[in-house]
TrEMBL record:
NADP(+) binds at residues 94-97. This is Pyrroline-5-carboxylate reductase. Keywords: Amino-acid biosynthesis, Membrane, NADP, Oxidoreductase, Proline biosynthesis, Transmembrane, Transmembrane helix. Residues 198-296 form the Pyrroline-5-carboxylate reductase dimerisation domain.
Length: 312
């Protein structure tokens, strides 16, 4: 670890997601010096040295190609996760869930990670499973004395830095500086919300599956345009921009119900279309899609739940 005030961040399994997150961080570090950082909760120490691990030459050159432009202090390390973790202050676990056992149970990993912050983005791998791989048999409290693990869940829009990322709230709570660091890092690729552990499955459904649901609605909007004669390419472009514009208004503070009412001129076409949507029970079907996806997420997770959402 170096003498300056910066942190060394190691991304283990640096593929699509790892590159997206590192790119966001490096980009932010490059630009923040001139543009005044408006964030109140900037962590006191930010990462400024980066190690990215992978195995294949293909992955290594991809990392260099995509991140080289940021001109940051970045090293690509092939087939030596342990060395890269040893040198790190913070480790971002970003390999495929399938490989996590190999990665965490390799010789020397436990020692390399001791006393450090481990941030996981692995889909469907609960914190308890990571604890078990590193310290089989130890309780959560005992593990927390040796390592800080934070489970985060970014979504597919990370690639365009529009992720809706949820962070599982830790018990006991993380120190404020650690919390700020995790929030800062993950907000380089989009928005971040910290949630209570019991809402993890619902957030998997809303944030993880949500882009697929929104894509279906977007397709339907475009299809309607096509049905009435708009060429496909234009209809797709229009549907996407309409959803983006609606998003912008809501994120600017407009309530969706007020927005809808403002557009509904008496006797006009919008209210006519809305009536057709309500006849089709779109509202309850979309809500129930999230509910259904939550149930499936809970069945895929470790502690099986019934459809009522309560553990048994
Ligand atoms: N994609 C999403 O939208 C999304 C959303 C939420 C969460 N996630 C989670 O993010 C994680 C990464 O997804 P991804 O799409 O970025 O996958 P990816 O592109 O396949 O990246 C995984 C990387 O891990 C490397 N790797 C595999 N085994 C390794 C090992 N033993 N040591 C070091 N590196 C190793 C691979 O390098 P080689 O090719 O050299 O083996 C590859 O570059 C997954 O756990 C996924 O669940 C993804
Ligand atoms: C990790 O990165 C730092 C700074 O970029 C570098 O000095 C160090 O040698 C790297 N570690 C490995 C194992 O390559
Ligand atoms: C979230 O964190 C809590 C407390 O640290 C832990 O008990 C729980 O298993 C975590 N949930 C997931 C899904 O990782
Ligand atoms: C849901 O809850 C009701 C009432 O508590 C119970 O009768 C029912 O069996 C539950 N459904 C499942 C699938 O567990």
């Amino acid at each position: 670890m170096a003498s300056d005030n910066g942190l060394t961040l190691t991304v283990v399994g640096c593929g699509t997601m790892g590159i997206a997150i590192l790119g966001g961080i490096m980009d932010s570090l490059n630009t923040s010096s001139q543009s005044s950082e408006q964030e109140q909760s900037l962590p006191p120490r930010l990462p400024n040295r980066f190690n990215a691990t992978c195995r294949s030459d293909r992955s290594a050159s991809r990392i260099k190609n995509e991140l080289g432009k940021y001109n940051a202090n970045l090293n690509v390390i092939q087939s030596d996760n342990v060395r890269a973790m040893k040198e790190a202050d913070v480790v971002l676990l970003a390999c495929k869930p399938f490989y996590v056992k190999d990665v965490l149970q390799a010789e020397g990993v436990r020692e390399a990670l001791e006393g450090k912050l481990l941030i996981s983005i692995l889909a469907g791998v609960p914190e308890a499973q990571l604890e078990d791989l590193l310290y089989p048999g130890l309780s959560h409290e005992q593990v927390r004395e040796k390592i800080t693990i934070v489970r985060t869940m970014p979504n597919t829009a990370s690639k365009v830095r529009e992720s809706m990322t949820v962070i599982n709230q830790s018990t006991p709570p993380l120190p404020q500086d650690t919390k700020n660091l995790v929030h800062w890092m993950m907000s380089r690729i989009g928005k971040v919300v910290e949630i209570e552990p019991k809402n993890m499955d619902a957030c998997t459904a809303l944030c993880g599956s949500g882009p697929a649901f929104a894509a279906l609605i977007m397709e339907a909007l475009a299809d309607g345009g096509v049905a009435m004669g708009i060429p496909r390419a234009e209809a797709n472009l229009m549907a996407a921009q309409v959803m983006r514009g609606t998003t912008g208004l809501v994120q600017d503070g407009e309530h969706p119900a007020i927005l809808r009412e403002k557009v509904s001129t008496p006797g006009g076409c919008t209210i006519g279309g809305l009536l057709a949507l309500e006849d089709g029970a779109v509202r309850s079907h979309v809500s129930r899609a999230v509910r259904e996806a939550t149930v499936v997420a809970s069945l895929l997770g470790s502690g099986a739940k019934n459809v009522n959402g309560t553990r048994h």
